[in-house]
Write the structure tokens for this entry.
Amino acid sequence: MQRRMKIDYSCPVLYRLYKPEDFVALYAIEQVCFHPPDRFSRGYMRRLVEQPNSATWIAEEDESMSGFALVEWTREAELAAYIQTLEVVPERRGKGVGGELLRRLENSASAAGAALIWLHVDAENAAAIRVYQARGYVRHGREEDYYGRNRAALIYAKPLGVEQAI
Ligand SMILES: CC(C)(COP(=O)(O)OP(=O)(O)OC[C@H]1O[C@@H](n2cnc3c(N)ncnc32)[C@H](O)[C@@H]1OP(=O)(O)O)[C@@H](O)C(=O)NCCC(=O)NCCS
């Protein structure tokens, strides 16, 4: 029996670092993915992407932005990286874009010398929690009322190896 070949007509995903001209498209994704009071304001988001000691990765398909993710690093006892956000437009989810953006955040943080990467995630955000758990993040705690009254955050963290390749 002749088998039909399955052809994938979807565009390849291009991953690259943020450029200032990306801001409008990036913030449009924030508006799709989060609603007030969870949404970052435009000003806060701009400060995040422009700060030193951070990396913002963009996922692009057919010249259209399908997701982005942002990590920053600070020195406390040791250099640690914090994931500010990871966002993929609803119609492009479930195809590995979020996981690849996460991997790139880890590589940027690792290249900056961070030994650990961590984040807060809404305790009800099962999709995001699955992505983190599947990629080696371990739950380290819970903060009640972090996102507002009766909305807890879970803290997930992962040690970073220095030799991760991009
Ligand atoms: C969390 C979020 C970024 C995940 O993005 P995503 O692109 O769907 O993530 P992935 O595709 O990498 O992983 C999602 C699922 O798709 C599966 N998947 C990965 N590659 C795939 C492929 N090629 N084909 C089909 N499914 C695939 C993954 O296995 C994963 O399933 P699993 O969780 O059962 O293992 C996305 O849901 C989102 O933007 N949510 C709103 C914003 C948000 O809450 N962000 C988190 C802030 S803490």
